[in-house]
């Protein structure tokens, strides 16, 4: 029997879903990881927060139960190091800090509420900039339920990073401040004026699903053209949530958020005149694990 491989886990408490990702380290020099488990539970915390301002007691109890389950799973997989991060919904919830303190007490899981800039930095930490196939000016865009994170890379250098309170669940709850759209528009126009041709790198469950629905993933393409995204957005936006579920075999918690997600991506693409979206199928959880690995190497 071979030696035990280093095992890492990330918990991402988002506005739409709560994920647990567990990976094993296959090659430390790469580093190269193998995914051994991914669990996604659609608690939809943002629907409470963006309409009421707090997380209801019912969803708080569900979150505590879920953290206990994730703790048991990490023990079963003999995880060496893990980190739990909460993003936009927990940031905005008036009782967010109290809930996190209760979870730490009852499960032993310490949760970091990260701000938009740290979230963007963690996502950037997926080391996309080291991919030799991705050259030139690239805007990394991660669309979540509560916020959208952006990172501009030019020839592998991080030039600009920002977070906006524009997300799919916020849009469904009519909770996006118009000033956030204005700030996004101004920032992107300034970037486009300075850097010229820009393509996107898309991150998040919605762009991954849109990529699959477009048919481009099956062809082996590294992403999809913006026109392909416009086409599938046009088809989806004409349908009710129930019709999207039936026609495209979408889960209910994906069928409603996928249209506002496409809208956000298309708004950004149009503003910077992007023609293509690279989709490497990674996200915040992967970045958390990359960060854990780096910290472990330092110790």
The 3D shape can be described as globular
- Show unreliable segments: none
Q: How widely separated are the two ends?
A: 27 Å
Largest sheet: 6 strands, mixed
Strand elements, count: 11
Structural key phrases:
299 residues, alpha/beta, 5-stranded mixed β-sheet, 13 helices
What does this structure look like?
- With 299 residues, this protein is an alpha/beta fold.
- The chain contains 13 helices and eleven strands.
- The strands form two sheets. The protein has a six-stranded mixed sheet, with helices on both faces. It has a five-stranded mixed sheet with strand order 3-2-1-4-5, with helices on both faces.
- α2 runs parallel beside α4, α8 (205-214) crosses α9 and α9 packs antiparallel against α12 (258-271).
- The longest helix is centred in the N-terminal third of the chain and has 20 residues, at 57-76.
- The mean pLDDT is 92.
Strand and helix layout:
Elements: E1 7-13, E2 18-27, E3 32-41, H1 45-52, H2 57-76, E4 81-86, H3 88-92, H4 96-107, E5 111-113, H5 116-124, E6 137-143, E7 148-154, E8 157-164, H6 168-172, H7 178-195, E9 199-203, H8 205-214, E10 223-225, H9 226-237, H10 241-248, H11 252-255, H12 258-271, E11 276-278, H13 284-298
Parallel strand pairs: 1-4, 4-5, 6-9, 9-11
Antiparallel strand pairs: 1-2, 2-3, 6-7, 7-8, 10-11
Helix pairs in contact: 2-4, 5-13, 8-9, 8-12, 9-12
